[in-house]
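Researcher: Sequence of SWIM-type domain-containing protein follows. Predict its structure.
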Amino acid sequence: MRNLSIASENGAYKKLLDADPTRSARCKSTVSRYEFMTSNYAECLNGRLRYARRLPVCTLLECVRTLVGQWFYDRRRYALARTHVLTETAATKVLASVEDGQTMNVQAISATKFKVTYGMKHYTVDLMGRKCSYQKFNLGLIPCSHATAAISKANKHIYSYVWRYYTTENLREMYSREMTTIAHPDDWDVPLEVSSRVVLTPHNPSIVCSRCQQTGHNRATCTQHIPISQSSQTGSCNDNERSSSRARRTHRSSICRQPGHTRPTYPNRPA
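Model: Prediction complete. Tokens:
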């Protein structure tokens, strides 16, 4: 920051100091939008439906149903086969936090509050409120390394401090529903108020080809044959235009810029 204050010429250093810390510092954030708490699921689905988007709406919806149904089936099988209390991602993070917390010094403040020291830094862990001054436990809702050290000091079970949405049981409940297939339109039970509606096609202006004067395409995609009389007439007109343009063209000398002669036939050319 000191180097930035020295090199700053357009007030960038002052703008950083005046900026809201909730936009840049995780410890000041008020929302859980970090690490695996946020994902780009919309773009993932958009990429999988890249070719299906060109299909009609009904076919597109069937592709979406098939894709989501396959995802639910795969995740349901995974959840039923998993025997661990936590999901794979949560269990991996808890294990890493436990390994990092083994080198920390923990001092009890009360039955639920602890002071965790790591190097020259100190953090306060509140097991009752499930909070840590490092803020990672507050946002991710998975015990950080300071929290796991405090939990071990209190002789508590670490998995009981993990948010229940990271448990395998919740994963099974989430993907327990089945995506049934869509029945044939003849078997649909359509209400009378819906079937009685008259739906007209949208009015789109027709494209007229400037070559054959037909609708539905333009000149670039026209495949109609032009009659011989029209093509010959068009060709003769073009020939007349080219001949008239040649007749109007006047030769000028590149030396004196006068008409009637050229550079090789320039009369005043020195010997």
